[in-house]
Amino acid sequence: MTEAAGSAEGRTPQEFERALAAASTAQASFEEEHLPLLKRIQRFLHSYPTVVPFVVLMMGVLLGLLVNYPRFATANNLSTILLQVTIIGILGIAQTLIILTAGIDLSVGVIMVISSVVMGRLGVIDGLPLIIAFPAGLMCGIVFGALNGALVTRLKMPPFIVTLGTLSIIGALNTFYSQSETVRSGDLEAQAPFLQLMGYPIEFAGARIILGTLLLVALAIVVWYMLNRTAFGRHIYATGDDREAAHLAGINTDRILLSVYVLAGFISSVAGWVLIGRVGAISPTSGQDANLDSITAVVIGGTSLFGGRGSIVGTLIGALIVGVFRSAVSLAGLDVLWQQFAVGVLIIVAVALDQWIRRVSN
Q: How crowded is residue 208: how many other Cβ atoms within 10 Å of its Cβ?
């Protein structure tokens, strides 16, 4: 009697598990088979956010080839595009880190400029050794990044308001410290040639690129690895996706946010060094549009303004999209205002597409 009961008890779970497994498999198969095509596309784009930016980039290249093939498909034009997107790409990397946490930084451009001014004035006007002037410029970016991060985490202020305020504050400090004076290229070359290093040209496959472009690639690789292969990177995504849930999971979200803003400030100061090499001189008014261009590259590159989704690769593609479309419009002989028009349309389309893709997660 006991053996029969034990045998029955032994058979029942096995039969129940087999029935449950069969039911589960059938249900999953039914859902997948009956998904509409539009839903499948939506899920695919949610899983691979860089696909859309890549397609848009190819469309931009095709447009450039159609409007002026002889001039667009040249090494010289490629050199010009890469030169234009180098600064945008570096600032875009800094902006990507912020936007991944569901924030935004309106001050990356002005941090870049004041960092370059500090390097130049200390090294040329004040005559300090480069071993002091160069780190001081980098430290400038770190300090302002820490200020942004502290205001966001300690005072719980919205990142948009914080960085809008620091944009004005740093801009005023930049004007005061620089006295609206430009450090000339000849003075830099004579007293601090190292600051112009990132503008050194290199011939590659017929195209002329600067060292700053190679630094952009190296920086992108390092930050990509950090985001995708380290715990810190995963915590950044988790904080941006759902800050409250990340906190409940044991992540110190305030420390993550502070670290991200400090890192973004440092990268912006590196962009200041590259800016000196690209321009050849140091002007307190250079790079005025770089801030908005960096946001444009990040958004067009597929990074969600709501945080938690995006990639460095997408940002680089977004920067190239801006450069390629501007080149195509210019070679078509159209006015500069149409470059702004095209970029504006791309931003609106990118955000609308992001909203549509985000419905998958909701």
A: 15
Give the single-character DSSP code of 195: G
Domain ranges of the chain: 51-358
Distance CA 276, CA 192 (A): 11
Cα–Cα distance for residue pair 141/263, rounded to 1 Å: 9
- Rounded Cα distance between 119 and 32, Å, is 58
- Distance (Å, whole) CA 157 – CA 150: 10
Mean pLDDT is lowest, of 12-26, 138-152, 197-211, 225-239, for 12-26
282: three-class secondary structure by DSSP: strand
Place of tokens 């140091």: 282
Q: Which amino acid is located at 50 in the chain? A: T
Could you report how far apart the first and last alpha carbons of the chain are, in Å?
A: 54
- CB 259: neighbour CB atoms within 10 A? 18
Asked: is 51-358 a CATH 1.10.357 domain? The reply is: no
Fill in the amino acid letter for 220: A
Cα 264–chain centre separation: 10
Task: Please tell me what DSSP assigns to residue 287.
Answer: T
What pLDDT score was predicted for residue 360?
A: 61
On the question of pLDDT at 193 being above 80, the answer is yes
CB-based burial, 3-26: b 16+ in 10 Å, e otherwise: eeeeeeeeeeeeeeeeeeeeeeee
Q: What is the dihedral of CA 303, 292, 275, 126, to 10 degrees?
A: -120
